[in-house]
Every structure is written in C-alpha cells, then in structure tokens.
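TODO from last week: model Metallo-beta-lactamase domain-containing protein.
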Amino acid sequence: MAELFFLFRYHNDKLIYNIGAIKKSQKAVIADDSLNEKLRNFSALQPTRQNNEYINMKLTIVIFTILIAAGITMTRTHCYYTGKKSGHFDGTKFFNPWNRDEKSFFDVLKWKFTRDEEPWPDTISSFPKHHPQESVDSGHWRASFVTHATVLLQTGKVNILTDPIWSERASPMQWAGPKRTHEPGIDFDHLPAVDIVLISHSHYDHLDIPTLRKLRDRFNPEIYCGLGLDAYLKKYGIPAVAMDWKQSVNTHGITITFQPVQHWSGRTLFDRNKTLWGGFVIESPAGTVFFAGDTGYMDFKPLAQQYGAFALALLPIGAYEPRWFMKYSHMNPEEAVQAHLDLNAKYSMAIHFRTFQLSDEAIGRPEKDMETALKKLSVSNQRFIIPVPGESLLIPSDDLAKQKEIE
C-alpha cells in the first residue's frame, strides 16, 4: 500500500471523472466562501462528463495501473534504513509505538471501491503571487504559505522551506496522479536563498524529487529528513541528513529537532514504513515553531511542556474523510484546533488542504469544519489562520514575550 493508490482516480483527467461525481449526478458541493473572505476567488466546482460507462473504464485502468506499478517497483533498487532495533523500529520497518492501528492493503481496496468522494474542480485557480523578502528581522518569524504543506519560514537571515512541492501533480509521473487545484503562492524563481529544507516523510505530496533537484541546483540547501530517506534521496543525487526521533541539530543559529507524529511512509507498493516520518521543532531567538507535516491526532501536550509556548504551529487540516480510514493518519479540523491548544501555540497556520484531492471531502469542507471547530473550542480565527496561497504571517518575538507575561 502506498501513495501510488492516489493514481486510481486520476489516470486520465480528459476522460475520467471520479465515481463520487457519477453517483451524485448533477450534485456538486461548493464551498461557502463567506466563511473566509479571502477565499472568494476560488473557482466554483463544476462536475462534468458524468457517464456510467466511465466506471468500467476506471476499474480497468485501476487494475492496469496496479500491474504497471508493481512491475516498475520490483525492477528498482531501494535503499532502506538498516540500523539497530528501537522503540519505533523493529529491524525492518518503523512504527508508531503508541498506536499501531494501521489500515491494511484490504482496507485501502475497500475504501477505493466503496468511496463516496465529492467532486473537485478540474481547473487551476491562481492568486496574486507573494514576493518574499530576502530576510526578516532576527526578532521575528515570517511564515508564507505556498500551497499544501509547503511554507517558507524566515527568521533573521535564515530561510527554511517545509515539504516543498512545485510540481503540477503529487505523483511519480506528471501525466497522472493527484493534480493541484491552484498554483503555488510564490513562484519558484522568486524564492529567496533557501538555507534549509525540512522533509517530514516520503509521500509524494510531501517529498517531490523534481522540486528538490531544482532547489539543489539553485541553492544547495541543507536538507533534513527521517531515517532512511537520506539513502533514498542519494539515488537522485540529493544529499540529505537523516534524523531519528528526538534527535537535534544546530545550524544557522537555530536548533532543529525531529519529533514523533502519527503517520506512516511509502512511495511504492512494497516499501511501506521503510523510512521514518515525523514533525520538526525549530528553536530560534524569535521563538519556537512546530511543523507537524502529516499526522493523525495524538497527545501534543508533552511538546508544550518541553518547549513552552510555541510562537507558531503549522498544522494539517485536510484529507480526513472517511474517518474510519483517515483518522489514523490525518487530523480533521476539530482535532487540529485541539492540537493548537495542546501546543499552547500563539498562532497556528492551517496547511495540507485545497491543493491535491487525497480523500473524500469537498474542496471547501475543511474551512467550513474549521469555523465550527474554532467556535466550539473558543479559539479565535485570528489565532488559527486559514491562509490563501501567498499569504504571509509576521510574528514578532515581543508578541510572544507579552503572552508569557500575561500567563
């Protein structure tokens, strides 16, 4: 089981529309953009080509894709971590020691063939592009949302990118697989000099080889990732530093620590959990930032106990339906708001939504569910921000200091 299964509903965008749209005939769920004034420019959802003959065509292509993927995978040489056993590594695979309720291959098939997904737009929406500064004041953090889990973090003269992906699709091939629904909020050519890249795990929507190659050729940044991914990246000529959970590195005047989150890894049908996943804590004079990457809900309070109040948390809010299947690896909006509270975060920025269709909820559902969750848990929408691509958030360190004085 791996991210290749995302190809199932995207094999040929010109011929096939998803089964969910077929089932719903002319019905389309359109996001209530009044929930967030900034989202008014998103394209309305317009399901098309709703014809039952596409079901049989889709099933045929699914089977064909599985066979092709298996053949490609078995002919490639994979390098994995071969270290000693630990509390989260059994000698062959990594695991979440606090929760091993992972879904099986048959669960994936059950979801794929019984799913009730909402239609997403075929077109790509765009927003005014952000042109970030080369640096910011050393007493500030600036977070600029690119798309999905890609955020440009800046403090002083240090520029950091999280899970960078500028490709059109989150896929091993650019003619099939989940296709982005809006353009990156920062053009690649307008990036400031990137010093550090953080890779949370190996899934295609978080680890994009074409983007990493472009970053290597242009900036040659330091790249940090989980155990095993360094060997994988080395095959593509991309140097990286592998980190275990709780391991720290000091660089550019900041401290980066790889922390446990609840997820899994895999890029083919046969390499599930062969590389380690995680989130990153970044400590600097301007305050501490937490980048969760991808995660199901877990107890985040120990991080707040260890690091104190976070200046900023980057928390995923999308790809959470159906809950019976997605709950283990993806938080829903209410769980993300609870994580914000657990972390005692000054601000949180939503990530991992509206870019690639990876699950069954409608494109605008996360924002709508976030509004409900924020009200339920009494959190201001000025503290947990749902950004549009290119939106930037500036956090002065003295703002965090004032919060600590009040507490």
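Done. Residues 1-407 form a domain with the Metallo-beta-lactamase; Chain A fold (CATH 3.60.15.10).
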